[in-house]
Design goal:
This protein is mostly beta strands and 97 residues long. The protein contains one helix and six strands; from the N terminus they run βαβββββ. It has one domain. The strands form two sheets. It has a four-stranded antiparallel β-sheet, with no helix packed on it. The protein is globular, with a radius of gyration of 14 Å.
Amino acid sequence: MTSSHLTRGRTAARGQRRRSPRQGGPADYWSEGLRHIPDLRFEVVGVYVGLHTLMINYRNQKGGLVNEAMTFDGTLVIQGPGPYLGTDANPAGATPR
């Protein structure tokens, strides 16, 4: 199983949040994904809601099944693992950086 994810950390000394362009609200999260996978298309299979968490199960443009989970701190995504089913070396079809 392969996984892509983003996280937001805290600086140990001050307990302050550290942000990068990969982190923020849902719009920032998906914009970053589209930057790396411009031909992203998906069919939603299911949506699951939990306390501070949203999980979207979908089939991507390559036919692969994905579970995209987002954990929120207020309106900010603080973690977002995206595990893929299968053994494809590039299941998302992401372009190299």
